[in-house]
Every structure is written in C-alpha cells, then in structure tokens.
Write a structure and sequence with these properties.
This protein has about 325 residues and is mainly α. The protein is about 75% helix and about 0% strand. It is built from 13 helices and no strands. Helix 2 runs antiparallel to helix 4. The longest helix is centred in the first third of the chain and has 33 residues. The chain is globular. It starts with 10 loop residues before the first helix and ends in an 8-residue tail after the last helix.
Length: about 325
C-alpha cells in the first residue's frame, strides 16, 4: 500500500536471531486481509443489497450477511499492519521526503478507483482513501523528528505548548461528546445543556493535559515537556485535517500511527497501543488485536523487494473490484 518496508536489523531480531517472518510477509498479511475486507464491502455488500431490494428472501440475506460480517472482521487487521510498517519504513527509508511524496502521489492516483469502488462515482469528495491518512501520518512523523532535532525559540515553544493544550482539548471534547451521545445519551434520558457540558468537558481535558505535562516535565525536564507540547499541536492539527477531509480512519488513523511511533522500540506494545486507539474509535475494530500475532513473529528483515507492487496493489485491486461490480450490474449502488 505504501513504501512501508522493514529493513535493517531490529532490536528483537538481534536478540532472537533471524527466525520469524519478514517485513514483506507482514505486508502480504495486510494486503490479503485488506482485499478480503474490500471484496466484502465493494462486491458482496452490493449483492446483499440487491437481494434485499428485489428478492425478498431473508434466508439468503442472513447467510450472505454472516459471510459479509466475517470478512469485514478479518479486514480490520489490514490498517494497523500498514500503520506499523509505515513507522518501520520511516526509520529505515533513505529519503523521507521521497517517501512522503510517493504516499501523496498514490493518494491522488487511488482516489478515482476508491470512489468508483465505494461511492459509485468517478470523483466524490465526501470521503477520501486511506493513502491520505497514511500521508498525514507520515507528515506527523517528519514533524516530530524535525522538532526533536531543531529546537524552536523558547518563546515560540511555550506558545506552541499552550496551543498543545487548547487544540487537543478542543478535539478531544468533540470526540468524547460524540462518544457520549452515541453510547450513553441514546440509552439514558437526561436533560442537559450541550454548550455548558461541552465547556466543562473542555476545561477538564485541558486541566488533565496540563497536569500530565507538568508531571512529565518534573520527571524528564522542562525541555522535553515543551517538545511534547509542540508535538501535540502537530498531531491534533493533522488529526483535525484528516477529519475535515473525511479520510479513511480519519484523525484516529493519524493518532494510531503516532502511538505506534512512540512505542516503536517495543513492537508488540506499539501495535497493541495502535489497536487500542482503533478500538476507541469503534468497537468493530477489536479484531485488530489479532495483528499482534504476525508482529510478534516479525524479525526485522525486509524480505522480498516488491516496493511498487505494494504501492500499486491498492488502486489496482479497487479498480478490479469495481469492474467486477460493473459486469454484475451493481456498480451504480454506493457502498457508504
């Protein structure tokens, strides 16, 4: 899906020898599970929809829907694997600028196949393909690395640290309030003034962030705490941009990449953290924790050199799936 390879000798590989599976094998796991997911979403969903609208046979509907649900569950493994490999690639690639450029180019290339496969239109700007999310995640990693190596003037760092409290506070308030509305208020009849509630939540989150930064600064030093504050600005601005553009997995996808990056020295822990973020986004993502199995077996080696195959697979397979639906006469049905 992207220039995500796992070259070099990882810490775990050095300790445990070269047994296990290579980065290319992990990528193949991601590609296969992604293909299963998209086959269900782009093809099987349309079949189920047509049966429901024309046939009326509920037995066929429930049988196919069970298969559909199982395939979508398997598909939850794809995205966290590509996030993990993105972080690996960021550490190993020779040119991060070219890496980010390729992600951006393939995001543009993939948009028409993505819209055809899922929106039944040549171009539709209401929802963007996952390459854009990976691209924003890559930009975030580049920014973290830059801020680590090139310290901004002290006044600017303090101002960004303040923004690193307010901006995350605003994003988290919006996210948490949506979560409360979805999972709490629809089941409990409570009369509540939304603006007051949002203000209280915002203030509480900001105070929590300040306390955490102070505790971190006390333990690690003010300089590192300021760096974390500036990184939070970058993270949540890119998350907001991903939300604004409605990219696949949106801002939580960017956060997933960041969490994996933070814990990258501990591969299984990093993947577990990323899966926790995805599960917070939607409980349907809980099967993503199965990715811990291939990541635990990952040996740090690059494996097969099929870089552009992995790049091209995403738009090509979406185009092929759309052609299948076209031959079946279901391509005019939008999926989401």
């Amino acid at each position: 899906m992207s220039n995500v390879y796992a070259g070099g000798q990882g810490e775990e590989a050095l300790k445990g020898g070269r047994r296990g599976i290579s980065g290319s094998t992990v990528k193949l796991v991601g590609i296969v599970t992604m293909f299963i997911d998209h086959l269900a979403a782009a093809v099987l969903f349309r079949v189920i929809f047509r049966i429901l609208m024309t046939d009326g046979r509920t037995d066929r509907f429930y049988d196919l829907y069970s298969i559909y649900s199982a395939m979508r569950t398997v598909g939850r493994l794809g995205f966290p694997i590509f996030c993990f490999l993105l972080v690996e690639g960021f550490d190993k690639t020779r040119s991060r600028a070219k890496y980010a450029l390729r992600l951006g180019i393939f995001a543009l290339i993939s948009e028409i196949p993505f819209d055809l496969a899922f929106k039944a239109k040549v171009l539709e700007f209401g929802y963007q393909n996952v390459y854009f999310t990976l691209f924003f995640g890559m930009l975030a990693l580049c920014a973290y690395d830059f801020l680590q190596k090139h310290k901004l003037p002290t006044v600017m760092r303090w101002l960004m640290c303040v923004a690193g409290v307010v901006i995350p506070g605003a994003w988290l308030t919006r996210f948490s309030w949506q979560y409360v509305q979805r999972y709490v208020l629809q089941y409990i009849s409570i009369s509540i003034e939304e603006k007051i509630a949002a203000a209280v939540v915002f203030l509480g989150i900001c105070i929590l962030i300040v306390v955490l930064l102070l505790l971190y600064g006390r333990r690690m030093g003010t300089d590192k705490a300021l760096t974390v504050g500036t990184n939070l600005v970058v993270l949540f601005l890119l998350m907001w941009l991903a939300d604004l553009l409605h990219t696949d997995y949106s801002g939580m996808g960017v956060l997933t990449i960041t969490v994996i990056y933070v814990f990258r020295r501990y591969k299984v822990l990093a993947m577990a953290g990323g899966c926790i973020v995805l599960t917070m986004m939607s409980l349907n993502e809980v099967s993503a924790f199965l990715t811990l199995i291939p990541i635990a077996k990952y040996n740090g080696k690059r494996g097969l050199k099929l870089k552009y195959f992995f790049y091209a697979f995403y738009p090509v397979h979406l185009l092929l799936l759309w052609l299948v639906t076209w031959f079946m006469g279901t391509s005019s049905i939008p999926v989401f």
